[in-house]
Amino acid sequence: MVLDPALAWAFLTALIAGATRGFSGFGGALIFVPLVSAAYGPRVAVPSLLLIDTLMTLPFVVPALRACVWRQVAPLAVGAVVAVPAGVWVLQHTDPLVVRWALAFLGLGLLALLASGWRHTGQHTLPVTLGIGAVAGFCGGAAQMSGPAVVVYWLGSGQPSVLVRANLFGFFALVTLATGSSYALNGMFTAEVGRLTLLLGPAYALGLYAGARAFRGASDRHYRVAAYLVIAAAALLSLPLFDTLIGR
């Protein structure tokens, strides 16, 4: 039997993406979407991740819904839900190569912002919060990457990692409902998406539980450093320059 390099690449990616998501509460899409898109294209990778992440994170979502601060989560989620359809349109009608380059530059830009030590001291006004939510929703619809915008916003306010992580799980639970509905209406849950979900789901689940265990002993500083590393690795490896590694 000849090993399919694309599937092997996707399996390893799912394992790492799950560990990242389990540890930080975000970052799974930053790893999974660009790297699995290199093998199968974003129109397969993106809806596959939505199904995998929704099913595998259910045990983590319930406790997070009790721990998150809903007055912070709800306005962001409202802005995101409104903007999701625009992101889905981009996913369906934009050249996949353009989407991948955009993901890489988005990741590098956010990394530069976080690493600069930027903090925002202003109040979380409703218009600003809705705007950030809209950016997150657009990116979520286009690439399942709604996390970076809200991560920068919450980490930039100096909140503890435990609260940021809980808020992220609550936020993603709400946005996933809107994104999944939009994908379904646009016929994006294909047989190939179902196949990839079944193949990669176990690896993602294993990574999730390993990452969650690692988070229990992590400090705020460790959490922040891990966030930097995740974004940097995803941005660099998502560049189309690496396609030859998987035979594309």
UniProtKB/TrEMBL annotation:
Membrane topology designation: Multi-pass membrane protein
Keywords carried by this UniProt record: Cell membrane, Membrane, Transmembrane, Transmembrane helix, Transport
Localization annotation: Cell membrane
A Pfam short name: TauE
InterPro entries: TM_pro_TauE-like (IPR002781), TSUP (IPR052017)
Signal peptide positions on this chain: none
Membrane-spanning ranges: 46-66, 73-92, 98-118, 130-156, 162-184, 196-215, 227-246
Chief location of this protein within or outside the cell: membrane
Family: Belongs to the 4-toluene sulfonate uptake permease (TSUP) (TC 2.A.102) family.
Protein name in the entry: Probable membrane transporter protein
Biological source species: Ancylobacter polymorphus
